[in-house]
Fold each of these.
Amino acid sequence: MPDSALRSPRLRTRQAPVGLPHWAALPAGLAVAFLGLPLLAMLSRVSWGQFPALVTSESSRAALALSLRTSVAATVLCLLLGVPLALVLARARFPGQHLVRALALLPLVLPPVVAGIALLYTFGRRGLLGETLQVAGIQVAFSTTAVVLAQTFVAMPFLVISLEGALRTVGQRYDEVAATLGASPTTVLRRVTLPLLAPALASGTVLAFARALGEFGATITFAGSLQGVTRTLPLEIYLQRETDADAAVALSLVLVVVSAVVIAVSRRTRSPW
């Protein structure tokens, strides 16, 4: 390439990095302060000397164990239901698809208490399906199963969003090649599609687990707060706030640490697309 081309203003313009407006630093710093100061304020109120005793009390351990069990179960349900839903939304074309997508994403913007009321009128004792289940001797509302259903309801959209976006980005060229070689749709999904989606699947799974772990409003509305049965860690924090502020702050810190770990794992497994 001639030296004149290397010195071309147009070429230099194309190679120059895009800068940021100088004014962006101030509102960005304010945003960081707005998000970080509440966490620092909470850390300043932690009774570090009593911290081990506060987070290892019987009620705290029961709430944490229940939260972990139900969050894992809810995440499994999200995988079993959310992965096929994301595949259908990304790869299929059918009437009412936009309505189905809006319904799948509705829990993202729906107040959790409203979600709990909707679940209660569906699976409650006098709900749409609850009466039939009650006749069969199955009670869902105000049980551990209700906790899992509430967590699944609010967490599934995170998995669906992650997978649908990845499916649209990666395209179908590899799937089509596998299909032309004689692979069945299930084989293509298992051997081609899911391995390509592994980073997005891992990221969506972690986010769904985190959302399930932190669920509060739908759980207390649909499942109540019975220690060892439906009282998850967020509910325990809410109750402790009224009687023991130090315990509430200590348990809140536990959730913050878990959330930070989840964010770190999610960043490491984020889809490259």
Note: The mean pLDDT is 87.
Amino acid sequence: MTDKITNEAIPADTKNTTSGEVEKDNTNATPDKPDFAQRLSKIILILAALYFLWYVIGDRLTPISDQGRVRAFVIPIVPQVSGQISKIYIGGDKRVNEGDILFEIDGRDYRLKVEDAEAKLEMAGQDVGASTAAVAAAKARLDKSEADLVTKEMNASRIFAMEKEGIISGSDADRTRGVITQAELEIITAQAAYDEAQQKLGKSGQGNPKIQSALVELSKAKLDLERTKVRAPSDGVISYAKVNVGYYAAKGQQIMTFISTQYVWVEAAFKENSLGNLKKDDRVDIILDSAPGEVFPGSVISIGFGVSFDKSKPGSLPTPEKPKGWMKDPQRFTVILKFDNYDHKKLLREGGQADVIAYTGSHFIFNTLGKLWVWINTYLSYVF
């Protein structure tokens, strides 16, 4: 009843006006605006589709590897002679140049060996000198015997001539023939003595075996003395040295670890299905964790043709690998890369991590996207 009275109390014009305003307000309150969530979802789906397309195609045209390592030649420093370390010139994590002395082994014993070898060489020279004198004496006896034979033959010729003329008897001539025979036997004896002396002497001068043996022993002693100073094989870094003066360094025992900086490269593990277009001399960009914000250009040296996967022993049955998830893990192969220059050697550390992208051809769009990826990841390396 109250509602009826109220409606009757409201004028007709007023009621129509109010109703129209309400309808107008309702129309303005529900405008046809696009849904922000739907628009955002569409953008995300489009970006995801574009990323998937870039991932599938770009993985063949511009393959990427985040499993790269900086590599260099690692050489164990081992002494070639044994002894106590008397001096250490270079400690761990220090740069060295080729020929720099790293440490020194006590060389007193080796200096004594050099002196002993020098004495033996002197004795060999004296022995050879004595043998040379014996040869000379034997040769002199041989020459004398030959000269005596010549003289006796000349005298004998006159005696034999007088024998023919009957001036002397045949017995005197026979005694002369005996003298000549005796002289010939003396020559044979002297020749044998001379040959024996030469055989004992051997080669003369530096070619004599005794001299040669003494020289070899002296050279070895001097070489061992030189080896007491252990030197850097090339330019590089001593990365590990945990020894001190007084430590006994055995021959062949590793004392330090040397990393060469003469040649540095990158070993990157690329997925097997990314190698289809990759080839030798393709250009690459390398990002090092040790050098955030910098890009190192390079090229492909070689592509690996095999990996080790069979862990079974000879004669045993193979053990199939068990899957680790619902998706198959991609097999990776090692690709060797080189730097175009060595201006940043101080940042190239053995085992340092690297991200790599390779450009397999003149693919403008994907190469540009690859450069963008490089630029982004270069600065992200400041964070991780």
Note: The chain has three domains: 48-73+257-310+329-380, 83-103+229-249, 109-224.
Amino acid sequence: MVFPLVNLTINGSSRDSLTKQLYEQLRLTILSGSVAPGTRLPSSRDLAEQLGLSRNTIMAAYEQLVAEAYLESKVGAGTFVVKNLPDAFLRAQQLLSSGPPSTYGRTRTSRRQISKRGHTLATASVGLRDHIKRPRAFQTGLPDIHAFPFKLWAQMASRRYRDQVEELLHYPDPAGYVPLREEIVNYLSTTRGVRCKTEQVIIVNGSQQALDLSARILLNDGDVACVEDPGYLGSLAAIRGSEATVLPIPIDAEGFDVDVARERAPHAKLISVTPSRQYPLGVTMSLVRRLELLNWASDIDAWILEDDYDSEYRYKGFPLAALQGLDTEGRVIYIGTFSKLMFPSLRLGYMVVPPDFVESFTSAHAVTDRGSSWLHQSVMAEFIAEGHFTRHVRKMRTLYAQRQAALVAAAHRYLKGILDVRPEDAGMHLVGRMPEGWSDVRASKLVAGAGIETEALSSFSIETRNHHGLLLGYTGVTEPEIEDGVRTMAKALGGFTGA
């Protein structure tokens, strides 16, 4: 029997390599029963000429199929489909020949469903982005990686590999690298008013893992959890993933509305807040409101998750001390991250947990991923200890303040009547408010078509429908890029009437 070459179609524009495409098509041809066992394949030279491919590509595909027992090679005779396919291959052949592949796929999938929790996690909106080589205006939450001292970081990492290679190769402590935890304690006590000991600090892979761990450990199915509305989608996803009942609480000028929460959630088990700078609105929770929140949590015996995601970027005055520093009952779990201060792929965050729960959180962390990169933790510890971290944050604070001012000025020039963009004392993004009745979702799609990335403010809401605007991140792009981005937005929204 002659091997059916008509079945082989190679697409030069496919993301898959030529070798992979050829391998997959030969494999499926064999499994579908289109070719009989023992059929001789064309020589690698002949097939290369017929398909217009290199001989190395053909030989690589053949060798893989030989290794997987689809083909057998006979010296001096050629390459053949194996005569005795294993039972697993024969069953696959029967299934494939019983109907079209699409029918087969639907039938099998309908019998196997992911769990309710799995579906909740898989469908959660957490702002995932495609891989990018350079940030676009106006993505949120992205630091300027080009301003980071990578040469210094690389030198420090190189020293670690040279001097501590054996330590780096062992499993990391799930609680984290002790010198880094010690540096975090010193840093938080002096800059954020956090009160803790080294053993209370647990190093995690970013704040999202801290939120996920907290929800898993503190919430049972059906427990009530209060979240800010509008609020951070990552926190919402983590809580929903624990199958808790989510109760959205509106934000006013002082932050999380405790009076509304008291009325709506008298038996709440968990309260998730961003008091230093509410995400996405940018409101700072007042001291009076913080004390009210702590008193209410005490009354109902609830936990508080304090996500302090970007408090370092304050451009005027000093931030209020962390909520955790006001807590006298061990109810607050404080969460911080280095990803927005250093570079996103660092994936280092930390949480401060009450002393009685250190062992529980550490054990749970060990179950999920055994711990964070030992190399990154050790370099980060030295980076802080030698003063580089403080200098870098100070430098970026000045740079970002200039970029915020550039964004506000450009918006006033080009977006008057469309977006009301006002300066803020802190943060990595501004909210451009839209006229009442306008669709921020529609506006976001229009500017996306022009190559500008924004997030619709209303997409962060659960129940509230009175917040409309666009989130404009300014930290990851330069001032000329900010100017160009605003002009592009103005053109894209020039004929926009709000519908």
Note: The mean pLDDT is 88.
Amino acid sequence: MSDTKLRTYSSDRRETESESEVETNNDESLTCPECSGRVVNDEEHGETVCADCGLVIEEDGIDRGPEWRAFDSAEKDQKSRVGAPTTNMMHDKGLSTNIGWQDKDAYGNSLSSNQRQKMQRLRKWNERFRTRNSKERNLKQALGEIERMASALGLPKEVRETASVIYRRALSEDLLPGRSIEGVATSALYASARQMQTPRSIDEVANVSRIDAMEFKRTYRYIVRELGLEVAPADPASYVPRFASELDLPDEVERRARELLDNAKEDGVTSGKSPVGLAAAAIYAASLLTNHKVTQSEVSDVTDVSEVTIRNRYQELLEATEVAA
């Protein structure tokens, strides 16, 4: 082997060994030196401690939070020196300039008529520059639609963010030609709610959408197939807390409904059945078993499931519980 090749080989070997040493040190820094337990950061006290034995590994850590305190949202906004974080829920991710609608200066004084006209022209051109092409206009309309439907369905921010990402993927992969913006936005929101374990039924989503249920189902199947989304079957138990809350039922009913659904799942009763119908029947059966009676009509109104379905599933759940007992 020549001297040049030998030097190159030695250099590569030293670099590989140094990289492995760094990885080893990083791995060791994540474990406790005393008991090899899990290490956590206590940001409140500025310490790095072991979650198992309580050993303080590091103290006087750097506080990366603000040096000021705020006791309400208005005071927080007043003292903050940075803008809002970037978000996928806005077509420009919140990075563009936004001119306020108030015709006042920085001191709260009203603007003159000439200044008001000038600000109106600036707002108009600023809005035009924020959506410079058809794709950005499409995205702006769709994200507004997702926000409207998510607000009507009471879905959290995480679901809205995920739905925005799904829609952006559909737009970038050119899946929108031949389909409406509302249809793809509705499908993205429904898939996001399923993925984030806060599902809503097809009927609930269709009620707040601007498209009919048939187009919604067709577009949803297409989006899931083309994007390869992993959407697990909805768990009936995930609907129970919301239904119990809307019916003003105690925790005991919710707990018993979950037990009924677990017994039915073990017995294979839930296979091929609507999860919303099973959840409604479980709520009704649990209310009877715990002496917090509600009528089938009341459950039907809240869950949007027919009384016939509730009666059929209710009998099946009770039979599965008797078999389990």
Note: Strands lie at 39-42, 47-50, 56-58.
